[in-house]
Design a protein that fits this description.
This protein is mostly helical. It is globular. The protein is 65% helix and 0% strand.
Length: 434
């Protein structure tokens, strides 16, 4: 029996190596292309990588491989990122805006008070990559992200910085899996996720900083360090605003008075930028009013006859309802994190592919198949780059949005109806017994 089991585990390790080889080949091809000119090919390769990725998750879930598999998962995850690091971040220009804002700060200028079209600051742009969007919009990023923009100078350095944060998140995830008594190879959900790898190693997006802070907050929560946990959540919030949604979940597990710690950390982070006054959130407001991209339920709310402000109101009420639901159901914190972040992204007016990296760490612990699928199909969200690169407006295709979201939304709706039916059946059975 032991001999058969040993052979079986070796076969699962070989299968993981084969899948890792397939993913490595895809990322190697990805490192040698100018994807701004080959967006359809990029999307096709991303979806193919998603097939390999989902097969690896099935393999780990089904056969529970051991230490060798973990080494393969971690080693391959690092290798995938190294393959993409040298490539140009062609699918998004965000990292060039980071570079501009970092240069602004090194000049001693408050980034919340200026924008790329500000007279006298034109020379801070990379001449090879001029900033095409947001030229009259000041920064919308929170202060910890702003500080990180000033830590490095070159585009390769930004990509390396945010990839290191991404790999640090993988390390924290392994600790969380250990503390929650989950198999460590479950880290494959994050380590091999194509959207995660592309977002940070190729695109250089700063979300990895916020994700790392959020995971550290969860780590301290499990270690029963409430002050550090809430402070970590505050650092996640001053990296990207999504984290605010989880504050009620953390306060329910700690104490309501710790909201003061959260507020204090946020205030200290904003302190160096207070000279901007009311302009601190001007860029964020301009972004909310002027941008709408790759959205799903938010677009449906508008199609129901609501104006954009009305849609924001409806979406805000629904998000508040999700928070209340998690508190009433007393959801476990990691499950609540997946539920709330997923709901926020589905109801948001902007849900660019790299935003979905926020859901992936939670999927290591809560295997929600529709959201796992969305973490792959969100690559379709890069489709507007095709027209945009040709000088046309950045506009989503209804067909592409349907392909990206419709299977996921239908699956989530089916699961919700089934869960309600199961719960009501259980309630009837309990009532009959009494």
């Amino acid at each position: 029996m032991q001999q058969k089991r040993f052979r079986f585990l070796r076969l699962s390790d070989v299968a993981l190596l084969v899948l890792a080889g397939g993913l490595a080949a895809i990322f190697y091809l990805g490192s040698r292309q100018d994807w701004a000119r080959h967006v359809p090919e990029f999307i096709a390769l991303s979806l193919l990588a998603g097939v390999f990725y989902l097969a690896a998750i099935y393999l780990v879930d089904r056969f529970r491989p051991g230490v060798l598999a973990l080494l393969i998962i971690v080693g391959a995850g690092v290798a995938f990122r190294l393959l993409l690091l040298p490539a140009e971040p062609a699918l998004s220009g965000d990292v060039y805006r980071y570079q501009w804002e970092g240069r602004v700060q090194r000049r001693g200028v408050n980034p919340y008070t200026v924008f790329p079209a500000t007279p006298g600051l034109e020379g801070l742009e990379d001449p090879r990559h001029p900033l095409d969007t947001g030229r009259t919009t000041s920064t919308l990023y929170p202060p910890l992200s702003e500080w990180s923009f000033s830590w490095v100078e070159s585009i390769p350095a930004y990509k390396l910085l945010y990839t290191l944060f991404d790999l640090a998140s993988l390390g924290v995830l392994l600790l969380l899996l250990y503390l929650t008594k989950q198999p460590l190879p479950f880290a494959v959900v994050y380590a091999w996720n194509p959207t995660v790898i592309v977002s940070f190693a190729l695109g250089g997006h700063h979300d990895s900083l916020a994700i790392l802070m959020l995971l550290l907050a969860y780590l301290f929560l499990l270690l029963r360090q409430p002050v550090l946990s809430v402070a970590g959540l505050a650092l996640a919030f001053v990296s990207k605003f999504f984290a605010l949604l989880l504050l009620p979940v953390f306060l329910r597990r700690t104490r309501a008075v710790y909201a003061g710690i959260f507020a204090a950390v946020v205030a200290l982070a904003y302190l160096p930028f207070l000279g901007a006054g009311r302009r601190l959130f001007t860029g964020l407001g301009d972004f909310a009013r002027g941008w709408e991209g790759n959205d799903s339920l938010f677009r449906l709310i508008q199609l129901a006859g609501n104006s954009k402000p009305q849609a924001y109101l409806v979406a805000g009420v629904l998000v508040f309802g999700l928070v209340v639901y998690t508190l009433r159901k007393r959801m476990e914190p990691l499950a609540a994190g997946l539920f709330l972040i997923s709901g926020l992204l589905l109801l948001s007016s902007n849900a660019f592919p790299w935003y979905f990296t926020w859901t992936v760490p939670f999927l290591c612990f809560v295997r929600n198949v529709p959201m796992l699928l969305l973490s792959v199909t969100c690559a379709l969200g890069y489709a507007p780059v095709v027209a945009y690169a040709a000088g046309q407006p950045y506009r989503d295709s209804p067909l592409i949005l349907a392909l990206e979201y419709l299977p996921v939304l239908l699956w989530l709706a089916f699961d919700a109806v089934r869960r309600v039916g199961r719960d009501s059946g259980l309630a009837r059975m309990m009532n009959s017994e009494f």
